[in-house]
């Protein structure tokens, strides 16, 4: 695993061994960012189920100003810290060591990109989008990127958001919601 493009392009990423996290492959990560960017001019990214932190580090590498990563698993938190250190710009990253629901209630400011790759996709994604909208932390131009198993069918609309793009890559499906 490595950063695909941008400021940190080519740098290796550590991943967590075992079945508690499913790191997004380099190929899917590259395709995902080509769908939504591929590069950004500032903004804030929220990675609600950060795993190894690869997606949000990729977003910052491609131009996002800062990232907030949320992860409850202690072993994954250690991997995230190591991956953030690799960037040598740790001040651009904030790691919240807690469950997604608790983190949502503590977030402040606005996010321009939200990354959702929860372990139990469909119900979790709908609930998270609704909670984020209710918390008032989503910018007007926010993109919500959901990564799921290809068998998961997300609703056409959630809260004030509709599917903008959707694509399947191997066993993964990427769905992008916008207002």
Automatic annotation (TrEMBL):
SUPFAM superfamilies, A to Z: S-adenosyl-L-methionine-dependent methyltransferases
PROSITE patterns, per database record: N6_MTASE (PS00092)
Alphabetical keyword list: Methyltransferase, Transferase
Keyword RNA-binding: no
Annotated InterPro entries: DNA_methylase_N6_adenine_CS, RNA_MeTrfase_RsmD, SAM-dependent_MTases_sf
Recorded GO MF terms: 16S rRNA (guanine(966)-N(2))-methyltransferase activity
E.C. numbers: 2.1.1.171
PANTHER family: METHYLTRANSFERASE (PTHR43542:SF1)
Protein name: 16S rRNA (Guanine(966)-N(2))-methyltransferase RsmD
